[in-house]
Amino acid sequence: MSKLYVFAIGGTGSRVLKALTMLMASGVNVPVDKIVPIIIDPDAAGGNKTDTVNIMDLYRKFHGNIDYNDPNATFFQTSLEKLNFPSGDYVLPLGGQTNQKFNNYMMFSSFSEENQALVNMLFSDENLNSDMTVGFTGNPNIGSVVLNQFAQSPQFTTFANDFNEGDNIFIISSIFGGTGASGFPLLLKNLRHIDPNLHIPSAQAIMDSKIGAISVLPYFGLTPGKKTDPDSDTFMAKTKSALAYYDNNLNNIDALYYIGDPAHQSYENVAGGANQKNKAHFIELASALAVIDFAKNASSLEGNTIYKEYGIKNDTRGITLTDLEGVDYLAIARPMAEFTLFCQYIQNKLESSDDQKWIIQGEPNYKQKFLGNMDYNDLQLFVDYYLSWLEEMKNNDRSFEPFNLNVPNDNVFGFVKNVDTKKVLSTKSNWDLVNDRLNNSVDKGKVSRAQSKTLGRFVAHMNAAMSKLVNEKIKL
């Protein structure tokens, strides 16, 4: 079974991983047996990372409850594996304790006078007194010291022991901050040159694997903050320096993707912690598509590095599905439409439809066994995460608004922007038509028998109906 290990570095890495999870939830095809996410971020309480971890945990629960022998089951279909890290989460530690100031981490006070003078030439007073509890706050020179030690961690050994020949690796990082800019080249170095003294049985398989990466260029700004906070005025200079380094030193990667956006919306300058929760951005979704593109093409990569950049068909500040190039439109338009209709029904209509035949027939039925229980609450939570993710991308700059999430009840199927609806021969319309298809789904008997768990049966049943409705009603 082939696995794709996705290393998500820093806040940008977590936000791209979140977008990838949302695409997989909607049923977008990822041609691997398993996605294995690994987060590298010194900011233990980072808001974006916390949300992403919660979303992935919910995803794994739903995937584990659905029988994918049923061809109607496409939601949550790609397996997402959580490695058995000693810490119990997805996070690969950086080596040593980072919840302290940088000078204490280095044990600066124990250095000889000559070595202290050398360190003072390389790092400013602000660098040395930087609190790493919230990350490297835009300082890749700090990150390069700390990150170079993570291969010594037990979590790295756990990853290495799980790795098999035929598995591949993808790295997500930004190029304009601290953690991503320093973490990407150091991670690549540690993967391509594993210390033989570590005695890792799979070392050769890792070093010979196909490795792809996306380097995210500046796509947002920051409001002015304290002197020690990240300064977005330096983003472009840092990007140019990092690109020059990559050009001269990254010669052992199979595919390298670049993406960025000059349309910069400014976010509040929060130096890490739970309050650092940037709004979702289309750049992160497009970066997730790079992961999928690599998964499709990894086996054919041979020889020199392949470089790819991202573009849209129409250069607009308000992107819809029809502005995407054909390959991306075909990959995401239909599954996202089906999943969005599924989410809108759960959010807007399900509780008022609890007298429908498909909900109350059988013993036990969905009303008895599912509605109102913990599984249902978790599904509602994931729906809220997904619809909020769409809303955040809509309200960003540049915006991505594939769907109108506030369609009136007399135009339920008009939710896909810039795409026409179709007529069907039925006396039912709008939400009544949705309930009709759920009540009369020809696949319900098969789904009921195939799905041994109520949560999986419920999702697969709705999945089949939403796929049929989008095919019937929307001209995608």
User: Care to count the β-strands?
Assistant: 11
**Strand order in the sheet with the most strands:** 3-2-1-4-5-7-9
N to C succession of SSEs: EHEHEHHHHHEHHEEHEEHEEHHHHEHHH
Distance between the termini: 33 Å
Which residue ranges are poorly predicted, with pLDDT under 50 across at least 5 consecutive positions? Answer: 134-138, 226-231, 442-447
Identify the CATH class of the largest domain: Alpha Beta
CATH topology of the largest domain: Rossmann fold
Helix tally? 18
- How much of the sequence is in beta strands? 5-15%
Principal-axes geometry comes out as globular
DSSP helix fraction: 40-55%
- Summarize the main sheet: 7 strands, parallel
Identify the CATH homologous superfamily of the largest domain.
Tubulin/FtsZ, GTPase domain
Concise account of the structure shown:
By secondary structure, the chain is an alpha/beta fold. Helices cover 44% and strands 10% of the residues. The chain contains 18 helices and eleven strands.
Describe the structure.
The chain has 2 domains: 3-98 and 135-310, 3-Layer(aba) Sandwich (Rossmann fold), CATH 3.40.50.1440; 332-473, no CATH class. Helices cover 44% and strands 10% of the residues. It contains 18 helices and 11 strands. The strands form 3 sheets. The chain has a 7-stranded parallel sheet with strand order 3-2-1-4-5-7-9, with helices on both faces. Strands 6-8 form a two-stranded parallel ribbon. A two-stranded parallel ribbon has the order 10-11. The longest helix is centred in the last third of the chain and has 23 residues, at 326-348. The chain is globular and about 85 Å long.
